[in-house]
Amino acid sequence: MDSVLISLPIGFRICFQGTAGKVRYYTRAWGSGYSLALQHRELIMETETAMPVPLRWTLRAGSLLLLLLSLAIFAGHWPWLTPLAFLVPLSLFAGWGLWVAGAGCAVFLAATLSLGLSSELGMARHQFVPMLILATGLAAVFVYLREYKAAQLAPLRRTDSLTLASIRDYLDSDLNREIRRGEREGTPVTVAVLHLDAPETPLPEQDQSNLMVRLGRLLHRTLRDFDSYYRNNETGFIIVLPATATPDSVRTIEGIRSQAKDMLTREGMELTLSAGVVGANVGDDARSLSEKAQETLRRAQKQGGNRTLTWTDAGGTGHD
Questions:
Q1: pLDDT digits over 87-113, tens only?
Q2: Per DSSP, what are the bridge partners of residue 232?
Q3: What's residue 120's pLDDT?
Q4: Cα 309 from chain centroid (whole Å)
Q5: Closest CA to 242 of 179, 194, 165, 152
Q6: pLDDT tier, 73 (very low <50, low <70, confident <90, very high otherwise)
Q7: What's the rounded Cα separation, in Å, for the pair 169 and 81?
Q8: Top-confidence residue, 199 or 316
Q9: Distance CA 85, CA 66 (A)
Q10: What phi and psi, each to the nearest 5 degrees, are found at residue 224?
Q11: Angle at the Cα of 267 (from 266 to 271), degrees rounded to 5?
């Protein structure tokens, strides 16, 4: 697809080699616009919600400015800025949702087609107008690929690619399923919340992110295939241990804390981790079990951190 679109400006130049210099000028503008699109197509291919907010609003402001500028150019002002019109469809689809970008492109296409009826451009309008329509078509191709990719990957996007942890949105459904399975089969289900204790000197954001990636990879190597873990805020994980009683879960979490401590010691980092462990009781659901685990973790950290605490040890009612 890329090779076909790249060949378009070459074809235009061959077909109109003997015409006026304006044709070559607009052809070069099309080629430059497409080259710029290739260099920055990750912006168009990225979904609007996944894009950082400052970048999103910068693109939105720029796209509106380009659209207004293009309409002014089409009205006869600043004709030397005509090549900027090729960037209007790309910037609209990169910064706005489909409906808003589509409406903006409709206005842009209406203004473009009106140029074909204007005699002010002379013979150049027979080349300039089709190239603008091709630029809009190119943006539409990028948007189609973006939406198609998002639709294909949405059911599969369950894990964070860095920590390999499952996305937090799936915790409630997964945990409720494990609780129901445990009730049917008569097997225990345990939830643990593992968190980094707050250091005296806060870690730089990048160092903290790198540390959480390494902890996530440690959990991935250590836990069983049917265990699962999820990101919990910026400094911890929620771990679901099916078919595991509370004492066994405590031993598992203590083993993970020991390995994490060795890793931190090798890196020269004086950091500790705390964990809260709670077993499912009759009547528990995903929400209540998660809240108990979070409360157990808070009490463990309140006692000084660097420890694993169970729900009953923390003073909770019921049994583990």
A1: 777 777 777 777 788 888 888 788 777
A2: 236
A3: 61
A4: 34
A5: 179
A6: low
A7: 48
A8: 199
A9: 7
A10: -75, 165
A11: 100
Distance in angstroms (rounded) separating the CA atoms of residues 85 and 253: 59
One DSSP character per residue, 166-187 reads BPGGGHHHHHHHHHHHHHHHT-
Task: Answer whether CATH 3.90.650.10 is correct for domain 168-310.
Answer: no
Residues facing residue 176 across a β-bridge: none
Tell me the β-bridge partners of 237: 194, 231
- Is 0.70 surpassed by the pTM of this model? no
Q: Is the dihedral of CA 145, 148, 151, 155 positive or negative?
A: negative
Write out the residue limits of the CATH 3.30.70.270 domain(s) in the chain: 168-310
Euclidean distance between CA atoms 296 and 310, whole angstroms: 7
Kind plus residue range of the DSSP H or E element containing 24: helix 21-39
Q: What's the rounded Cα separation, in Å, for the pair 277 and 193?
A: 7
Give the 3-state DSSP-derived string for 99-167, with helices as H, strands as E and coil as C.
HHHHHHHHHHHHHHHHHHCCCCCHHHHHHHHHHHHHHHHHHHHHHHHHHHHHHHHHHHCCECCCCCCEC
- 3 state DSSP class of 236: strand
Residue whose C-alpha is closest to residue 131's, from 217, 222, 15: 15
Show the tokens assigned to 144: 């189609």
Do 82 and 129 meet the contact criterion of CB atoms below 8 Å apart? Answer: no
Which pLDDT band holds residue 81 (cuts at 50, 70, 90)? low
